Write the structure tokens for this entry.
Amino acid sequence: MLQRFHDFEPPENSFELKLVVSSFRRGSPHVPERKLPITPAILLKIRELLDLARPMHATLWAAFCVAFFTLLRKSNIVPRSQSAFDPRKQLTRRAIQVSKDGLLVQVTWSKTIQFRQKVLLLPLPALQGHPLCPQYAYVNMCNMIPADPDGPAFLVPGSGGGLISLTHDTFVHHLKSLLSAAGFTPGSYSGHSFRRGGATYAWHCGADPQVIKLLGDWSSNAFELYLDCSFDKRCEYSKLIAEKLQNSLLEQPD
């Protein structure tokens, strides 16, 4: 900029200039704000605030459960607006099959599946009698709100009396209201918190990171940024290393 101010042409392909710019970037790295994960404990708190006999609550709860257990991006769960719904991109009723074992969610488009080159099949468990059962949440919603198989999976009552698609803004608005009512800081969470929370919980349960990567449809190792390692988990790792080292010393020949 100073060179241009004094009518000097900046050197082309200057290695020194690149070094200076690089040093500025290292000195002030951009650190994106990461929202907190939605955990099973938080989901239970939200569940206590909902009346699943109400259509809006039934749909919200079904969408929350599917978002958590599938690790899907928000662009796959709900559209940004009513007019933006695309049955090739967002979940439809046909894309979610119900069986005695749970749910089977079929995804044919995502951030990494742009040309329908593969189908992502995501099984969700049936947790009989458990308040976090995704199968119960989804079936309850479907029984209460029947819909076109090729229409949006998650419908809510519209102000005009009909049914409309749950949108991303409505999804996040109600999520934050429920989080606030449950005693959490709503600004610390977003729609993406379900994806991060589901991945973190799967990891804490012992899931192979490569399996989490495949389930979450990550094309790189960026998903590792989502995995929250608690202090207790770090202590377990520290003890494991200590035990391994002590055992290896004991096994040394005389």
Observations:
- The longest helix spans residues 231-250.
- The CA atoms of residues 3 and 9 lie 6 Å apart.
- DSSP finds ten helices and five strands in the chain.
